[in-house]
Structure formats: structure tokens, C-alpha cells
């Protein structure tokens, strides 16, 4: 079943990476996918096809009929394609995973759709505690300084969305997570903006705080019993928050 899932995932990814996005597959293409595979893999593959894809008959010239298949929804194809990128197998080392990620960034760059695909990819890297690898590959593949202003803004929004995918709340952040946020902030010459919530009152602050304001905020964080923290992300150039305040936030 795992091999069948791998085959279906690769089929989904190949369709998204095609020059003309392929969302419809022929009966021949599905059969070719399992050519030479053991019978149990063949059966498992077509069982997955029946569960995730819909079929229809296309009538061509001379009244010829061909069966076509497509995933029940584009989101399904994006999900399986993300699995093809992020799932590691004994014969698929990490450098191959990185190569697939780079290829996706090249063929499906940020801002050109397939947001659910990128959300699935980022979430999978986060589940493996490997977000630093995701962002390192992202920043080495796409040079922010070389982007025109419009694309730079799109790229920043893309990063913001990926951060929100995996870090919706500061309550669950670990030291490793804060290291990822610092990596992103450093690459963008930006830093994290935080929101501190006390009851129904929400206090917004960022890294433009003076030393006196920061000390006062540190004091409030220590003494207020019902304080919760959630994180959002700033796209304005700011210096980093002090380590004393970061340690209290996390």
C-alpha cells in the first residue's frame, strides 16, 4: 500500500509540474504507472484511484470512447503531490527531497496559485520538525534582493502564509520554532511582531518598543495570570526584540 501511495503521489506531482498543468489522466497513463509492479501493488494502486479519483468517458472522433480520470478535487491532487515532495523513503534520501522542493519552487513559484499545495508541504515539514530545512531551501532558491517590488511583496505574503500555516499560536512554540522565526526574520531583514492578549483586551506591540516600554511589558507578562500569547508576523524592517523579552514570550 505504501508503494501504491508513492506512485499515486508522484502521478499527482508530475501533473502539477507539467508545462500545461495536467489535471486529467488517461486510462493508459494510470496503467503505465504500475507497469512492471507486483500484482498486489497494482491492485492497491487502483484501489486508491477508485477512492480518490473520478472517472468519465470522453467521446472522440468516429465516436471513439476513452475513459479519463481526475482527482475528486484539485485539493486532493495538491495533497498527494505534497506527499511526493515531503515523504522520505529509504531509497529517497534528504537531498532528493530538497531537489524535489527546489523543482516545485521553480515550476510553481510563490504567488502563482496552488496555495493548498504549499500549505500541505509546509505543514508536513513542520510535523517532521524540519521547518528550518524548508525555509533554507526557499531562501537559497529564491533571492529576495533580485525580485522586482511586486514579486517581492508576493514572496513576503507567501512566507507570511506559510508561517501562519505552522505557527498559528505562540503558546505551542518551542526553542527550535523560535530559531526558525529568527532565520526567516534575518533573511527578510524583518522581525516578528507579537500580539499579547489579556482577557478581551489585545495589546499590539512590535520591536520599536523603547527600553522603558519593553521593561514595563516584561513586568506585565510576569504578573498577569490570564495572559495568553499568539503570534503574527511583521513585514516592516525592525531590529530584533531583546532576548529577555523573547524568553518571556516563549
Could you characterize what this model shows?
By secondary structure, this protein is an alpha+beta fold. The protein contains 11 helices and 6 strands. The strands form 2 sheets. Strands 1-3-2 form a 3-stranded antiparallel β-sheet. A hairpin with a 2-residue loop joins strand 4 and strand 5. It is elongated. The model is unreliable at 191-207 and 225-243 (pLDDT under 50).
Structural class: alpha+beta
Low-confidence stretches: 191-207, 225-243
Q: SSE string, helix = H, strand = E?
A: HEHHEEHHHHHHEEHEH
* Helix-residue proportion: 55-70%
- What's the N-to-C terminus distance? 41 Å
Average predicted local confidence, pLDDT: 76
Q: What is the global morphology?
A: elongated
Number of helices in the DSSP assignment: 11
Main beta sheet? 3 strands, antiparallel
Number of extended strands: 6
Oligomeric state, counting identical vs distinct chains:
single chain
Side by side, the strands of the main sheet go 1-3-2
DSSP strand content: 5-15%
| Alpha-carbon Rg, integer | 23 Å
